[in-house]
Design goal:
The protein has 9 helices and no strands. The radius of gyration is 18 Å and the shape is globular. The protein starts with a helix and ends in a 10-residue tail after the last helix. Bound molecules: fe (ii) ion (2 copies).
């Protein structure tokens, strides 16, 4: 369906979980997909990045902050899983063993600088995703996005601050190396340019922006972070 046609539909404002059951099947399915995706990926990210990073953190203070990040990411999973339970999504769909997590997590974390880069870049991508739900027509999901946002901002700031600290300590090469290896897998996080799912999410006012708009915003902001704030180089992306 062309986007102009999609834009003509006046999406409902769905204030409660009970009202969700009264919506068209396409709306309900779309809500389920978004909630499941967040529940799975928050859990998987906590398991493969945040929890293992506690061991890598170099000082007691860095460990304490990393524990806080890990705790919050697990909590994000629990919040989205709680909503999924309420709207009747089977628990199995939230298990990363059954639903393949996003490619952004296919990176083997080995060092502290890698973790700092992941938080600075990947959590920034997550901010954009959560931001897109702030005006979601399904209010329980909108409310979740609103309480999750300050924590995602903290994670990205934590990543930025720890990267800057490493750079000031003369470890800019390790930060650059982690950016070179991690950044190229991140644009895929926003999904295909011609995504049918995204078109349906926008049709129903569940999301506001196209995958491509979000990806371009992400690339512009990460370019500024890496080149202006860090004084490093963003690797070129392959065609
Ligand atoms: Fe999160
Ligand atoms: Fe986060």
């Amino acid at each position: 369906m062309p986007l102009t046609a999609a834009a003509k539909v006046k999406p409902p404002e769905v204030k409660t979980v009970a009202d969700l059951a009264l919506q068209p099947e396409e709306y309900q399915t779309a809500v389920h997909k978004i909630v499941v995706s967040h529940a799975v990926n928050e859990l998987y990210g906590a398991q493969v990045f945040d929890e293992p990073a506690i061991k890598l953190a170099p000082t007691p203070y860095a460990k304490w902050l990393t524990c806080r990040v890990a705790m919050e990411e697990y909590h994000h999973h629990l919040r989205f899983k709680g909503l999924a339970d309420e709207i009747g999504v089977p628990a199995q769909r939230m298990d990363p063993k059954h639903k393949r997590p996003l490619s952004i997590f296919e990176f083997e974390l080995r060092t502290w600088p890698e973790f700092c880069v992941i938080k600075a870049i990947a959590d920034y991508a997550e901010i954009l995703q959560v931001e897109d739900l702030l005006h979601c027509t399904f209010h329980p999901l909108r409310n979740l996005a609103r309480i999750t946002m300050p924590e995602e901002k903290f994670h990205a700031k934590f990543g930025k601050d720890t990267c800057l600290e490493l750079i000031q300590q003369g470890k800019g090469d390790a930060v650059q190396d982690a950016i070179d290896r991690y950044f190229p897998i991140t644009p895929g996080f926003f999904g295909a340019a011609a995504s049918k799912n995204n078109e349906i999410y926008r049709k129903w006012g569940l999301k506001q922006r196209s995958n491509e708009e979000m990806r371009q915003d992400f690339l512009a902001r990460v370019t500024e972070l890496v080149e202006k704030d860090f004084g490093l180089k963003l690797p070129a992306l392959g065609a």
